[in-house]
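Dear colleague,

Thank you for sharing your sequence with our group. We've completed the structure prediction you requested, and as agreed, I am returning the results in plain text so they can be pasted directly into your records. Please verify that the sequence below matches your submission; if there's any discrepancy, let me know and we will rerun it promptly.
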Amino acid sequence: MNSGILLGFLVYLALLAYIGWWANRYTKTEDQYFVGGRKVHVLAATLSDKASDFSGWLMLGYPGAAFSRGLGAFWAGIGCLFGTLADYVLIGPRLRIYAGKFRAITVPDYLEARLKDDTKLIRILSALIIVIFMTAYVAAQFTAGGKTFAEGFGISDNTGILITVIILTAYVITGGFFAVVWTDVVQAMFMLLTLIIVPFLALSKIGGFDKATAIIASADPAKLHPFGGATGIAAIVFAIGYASWIVGYLGQPHIVTRYMSVEDPRKLRRPGIFISGTWTILVLWGAFFAGFLGFAMYHAGMLQVSDPEKIIPAMAVELMPSWLAGFVIAGIISAVMSTADSQLLVASSAIARDFYHKVLGRELGKKQMVNISRLVVAAVALVGLWFAISGPKVIYQMVATAWGGLAVGFGPILVLSLWWKKTTKEGAIVGMAYGLISEVIFEAKIYGWAFNPDAPGFFGTIGGWFNGIPVFFINFFVTLIVIAIVSMFTKPPEDVVKLHEEIFRKVPVETGRKSITETRAKSQVENVVDFVLTKGTA
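Please find the predicted structure tokens below.
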């Protein structure tokens, strides 16, 4: 084991330990444990949102796809960018306003209050969706951590998975939401630096971009084609298959929970979009080119790598001084942990709060509820550990499967309930039940994560029509239609419709001495500067 790499990583680990200790002082109640007491600064919430979004998929899965598929994998980055923007436009501000109105701590809290569901079925379905797919998602993060430790420290994947589980579970149990948010901020910066530095070092090693493309062209010309060599309808299907991540953003509880924690919902617009969009563009650019240039290095004999998804840690060890490579390994682990910690917290809230407390009606003190939540975190981590060790260990597909289940389960009902006043609890129950059952059957039993013609009979015919497109992309719109149809045949309570109209009615702009044009002409940068210079209340 390289001592320099180990030293760099241990410094990073010490920083996380300090943050967990500091955050524990501010974690005394259930509200603080799950949403930080709704006092999280928008800068921290925004960076935490993106760090918890871009997981080991960004640092391992996506570069691995760029290594394997070439330029065509760039469509996945486009899907992620526009998915991020869609979240801030369609979900963030309205969800924060409603969550504050209802004092909602979790997504099921919001859905139950917004749709006035007294049957508890929405909460039960929500808990099932979260536990099933979030545990699978956590397993994917553990797998990513295992691969990174294996490449960086010369240990087995399973040993690396075990180390990841121990480190991550410890600080989530210790600090709750504050620990998750502030470690996410640190991790977001590690991820950004890693994905900026590695591609430039690779370019320097290869001798320039022209030489890199020449090497790739000689090895596999299809990797320089934006559609992987496909033409016509096949090219469109290819692009949709990679860009389909866009719809998934609308239904990820570990991401949208960040919006519920923000101090001021107004800041989720200009500052939130600017900060999040800029960070997203930079990291996606870096992740793609790391994998793309890593393929050139591999075929030029400059790099040895056994697994395409290990390309970034392999490049770090090859291109950097050992102590700096240790920080890069830490940056990769940070991506894994920044998502898995959020997912563990959401899964914990689904079991401890939404099921044990709300459905079963067990009344406990706030401190007792936090302690139960911590036990649930440990239990979910153990199940995730088992899946990670026994699963396929292909991060891109593991994440796509879990991402899809959450996207279909929550995305359609969140969008409709936030924007359509006539969405009903019956529509939500039928739609969420369909989403849960169909995703489990289609992905676990029939197709896998993407449609294909190999399924038997009628399902094979459908698979042929959508061959290569992820199951969740088509299923998202089917679920949306199911909820809309059922809602049109049922009727929401009048007070629910009236509340929605009152909250989101249009109000005249108060401009003071400035004209509307002058008010709206303020640049994104100026808004962010104002935000940084104030306490988030402007």
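Summary note from our side: The longest helix spans residues 157-206.

Kind regards,
the structure core
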